[in-house]
C-alpha cells in the first residue's frame, strides 16, 4: 500500500505497536540466511529513493530459551530520524523511543522516567546497541561503482569499510569491517521504490533480530513532531545511567 505516511499518533489506535524491538536486538543470538529476491519489480522509478517510511513491523527474536514474535509500528525519515512506540500485549505503553542523528531518547511511562543522550553513551549489555545501526540499515542506495550483481567494497565517511552484495541491482547484504551485518529480502515495488520487506540484523557481538514490514507507506510527509517524545512531567536522566532492568518493565 502506498500513500502518505501520516503522523504516528494518527495510526496508534489501529495498530498493535512494536514490542521490545530496541532491547531485543542485543538479546538475540541466532542468525539465518536471507531469501533471494523473488518479487516482480516492474514499474520501478530509476531515480526513486527512500526518503520516509511508515510501516507495521513484525519482530522475531531468539536468545537461548527466550524467543517470540511481536508486532508494531516504526517511522523513519532519511537520513537518521526514527521513532517507535512499544506496547505490552494489553495495550499499555512500555516505552517510547526516538533517534535523531546521534541523540537517543527513551521514555518509560510507567516509571515516569526518560533517558536521553548521545547513542554512543549507551551502557554495555543494555540491549540497545542496534540503535546505532538503524540509519545504515535503511540506507538502500546501490553503490556508485560496480556491476548490478556481486560484491562491491566501498569506504564510508567514518573510518570503516563495508562490503555490499548486490543481486539484480538490489542490495541484498551489507557487512561492515566491525562485524555488523544486515541481509535484505522480499523486495517490493512501493510507490516506485524498491523496498526490502525483511531485514535480518546481526550486531558485532552476534546478536540477531528479524524485522518484517507490512503495509509500508513511503515518501509521504512526516513532520518533525511525529518523531518527538513528550517528556512533560517525567524526570530526565543521562542515557549513561540506563540499566538493563528498565527494559523489563
For this entry, give a set of tags:
249 residues; mainly beta; 13-stranded mixed beta sheet; two-stranded antiparallel ribbon; 3 helices; 15 strands; disordered N terminus; LolA/LolB/LppX; chaperone; OM_lipoprot_LolB; transport
Summarize the structure.
With 249 residues, the protein is mainly beta. The protein has three helices and 15 strands.
Shape: globular
Total DSSP helices = 3
Helix share, percent: under 10%
Mean pLDDT: 76
Order of helices and strands: HHEEEEEEHEEEEEEEEE
Poorly predicted runs: 1-7, 10-38
Rounded to the nearest angstrom, the distance between the terminal CA atoms is 34 Å
In the sheet with the most strands, the strands line up as 7-8-9-10-13-14-1-2-3-4-5-6-15
Percent range for β-strand residues: 35-45%
Structural class: mainly beta
Largest sheet: 13 strands, mixed
Radius of gyration: 18 Å
Q: Count every beta strand, where a strand is a DSSP E run of 2 or more residues.
A: 15
Account of the 3D structure:
The chain is mainly β. 5% of the residues lie in helices and 41% in strands. The protein has helices at residues 8-12, 21-24, 134-137, and strands at residues 52-63, 66-77, 81-87, 93-100, 103-108, 113-118, 150-155, 161-167, 170-176, 181-185, 188-190, 193-195, 198-202, 208-218, 235-238. The strands form two sheets. The chain has a 13-stranded mixed sheet. It is globular, with a radius of gyration of 18 Å. Mean pLDDT is 76; it is low at 1-7 and 10-38. Keywords: Cell outer membrane, Chaperone, Lipoprotein, Membrane, Palmitate, Protein transport, Signal, Transport. InterPro entries: LolA/LolB/LppX (IPR029046), OM_lipoprot_LolB (IPR004565). It holds the Pfam family LolB.
